[in-house]
Amino acid sequence: MRSPSLKSLSFALIVALGTVPPWTAQAASPEPVKAEHGMVVTAQHLASDIGVEVLKKGGNAIDAAVAVGYALAVVYPTAGNIGGGGFMTIRFKDGKTTFLDFRERAPLAATKSMYLDDKGNLVKGLSTNGYLAVGVPGPVMGFEHARSRYGTRPLKELIAPAIKLAEEGFVLEQGDVESFDGRTERLAKDPAAAAIFLKPGGKPFAVGEKLVQADLAASLSSIAEKGPDAFYKGAIADAIVKASAEKGGILAKKDFEQYAVRELEPVKCNYRGYDIVSSPPPSSGGVIICEILNILEGYPLSYLGYGSAETVHAMIEAMRHAYVDRNTALGDPDFVENPVSKLTDKAYAKEIRDKIEPFRAGVSQALMPAGFAESKETTHYSIIDDDGNAVAVTYTLNGSFGAGVVAPGTGILLNNEMDDFTAKPGAPNLYGLVQGEANAIAPGKTPLSSMSPTIVSKDGKPFMVIGSPGGARIITITLEAIINVIDHGMNIQEAVDAPRLHHQWLPDKVFMEPYALSPDTRKLLAAMGHDVQIDESWKIWGQATGILVGGENLEEIGAGGGARFNGAVDSRIGAGAARGY
Ligand code: DON
């Protein structure tokens, strides 16, 4: 006889007890920030202030997103950037949605085996350090695309606060200094990066000291004057190409000249009546969030409870199955056929659910597709304006400070996004992702991302704006924030603060944040066959920034509503802030 499914057991219990779990409990998190007219939540408080100022002066959420994007490039140099790439998900006040892909493209001279030696082995560091790791950057073109199509303010006005902060400098607080933590040695290797981000003598900056970025101010000023051409056709591209050629890179002027933003249909799905809009390929984020949510919809998570062994088991198994698809089936849509409809189909989710055994861990090796051989820094910000336009942006240099290089004279840190490609099928990348051919390197191709800027709506109205950094964990971090609100009744601050779990198919391990699970729960999971491991490196657990509309949690919304906008910056972020007006 087949053992009863988790779902049937739990529904039986709900019927027997005739109850739903109480949502009134308050976790140990500060109150969300409340506002009535607009909300900006970013990883650096000065950038949040700049975004709110734009809204107060009558700019819309897209204007604010552009101003914040440039500001973070100055005040959050570990991840904010104009030398990397990213995604913007927009939900307009009329309910229409769109998605901008301004992620990096592989240089035209890139080849599939560029990070392998002549024996076919990966050369350590080649895809992560120095100019060979750099993809062609997209933010300047991406922000301008957003502004000119959907914004209302001139570029000069939106970029001015960033120029001022770069020119005059800003005083570093503890959170800023923490984001520089452990990067001294890496930055010291590149004289142009060291001259900006380290003090004379190679020492890191301390709390209370000022970071001035004169070259970056000049680059931003030329972009303010001439628009994206200053970056892609003018002196900035020339300086990057020259430095790249001198230091073993392959970037060419043509790579910059032909860079184009893609405006794509976002991925959409419905979870328990909530409409999710998120990132399509070249991100795996939206597809995999939808796939996991579709699987989880079959389990009464709310009843099973946050952190219970049954909830965790269902989550892990859903993640395990979905990450197989992420790592083997997805890639740049201009190069591979992405099975998006199949992966986001409820019937496919049911097929997966039927394979999940109630009290026994799956085995990742058993899910290996035929022919598949095994052998921080990003930032997210969430904005909503008085009209209800919502913007979610995740952009990145990939690793902290990217490739650790600045082309002399530009002040612009460059990404190491090339590491997101499959450098060698089956070999883990920076985030331990074991990927396949769909994400192989090719000239002009975009590496597969996990970035998941997401907007949730309910009954045609914006409900939640959410996203996070965290490499391969971005997907599960964003997902967990969503289910913490929808299934577990948490307020937005609790939802982004709650301890997290992650499984990514390979390695076949459940990673948990310290204190995420009680020893008893871990024992129950171990008995099911799960290999649970505590991962203490806090930086890898992301830094979500979210907004909830209509109240701070479902209980308040259900009881008639609270503050219109409720903002929460992850308590894991040192320098971030939710600011509203
Ligand atoms: O696009 C991606 O999926 C990665 N490059 C993101 C890297 C990241 O989140 C690093 N920060 N913690």
UniProtKB/TrEMBL annotation:
Pathway: Sulfur metabolism; glutathione metabolism. GO terms for molecular function: glutathione hydrolase activity; leukotriene C4 gamma-glutamyl transferase activity. It catalyses: an S-substituted glutathione + H2O = an S-substituted L-cysteinylglycine + L-glutamate; glutathione + H2O = L-cysteinylglycine + L-glutamate; an N-terminal (5-L-glutamyl)-[peptide] + an alpha-amino acid = 5-L-glutamyl amino acid + an N-terminal L-alpha-aminoacyl-[peptide]. The active site is at T378. The keyword Acyltransferase applies. It comes from the Bacteria. Keywords: Acyltransferase, Glutathione biosynthesis, Hydrolase, Signal, Transferase, Zymogen. Transmembrane segments: none annotated. It holds the Pfam family G_glu_transpept. L-glutamate binds at R103, T396, L397, N398, D420, S449, S450, G471. Its EC number is 2.3.2.2, 3.4.19.13. GO terms for biological process: glutathione biosynthetic process; glutathione catabolic process. PROSITE patterns: G_GLU_TRANSPEPTIDASE. Cleaved by autocatalysis into a large and a small subunit. This enzyme consists of two polypeptide chains, which are synthesized in precursor form from a single polypeptide. Belongs to the gamma-glutamyltransferase family. This is Glutathione hydrolase proenzyme.
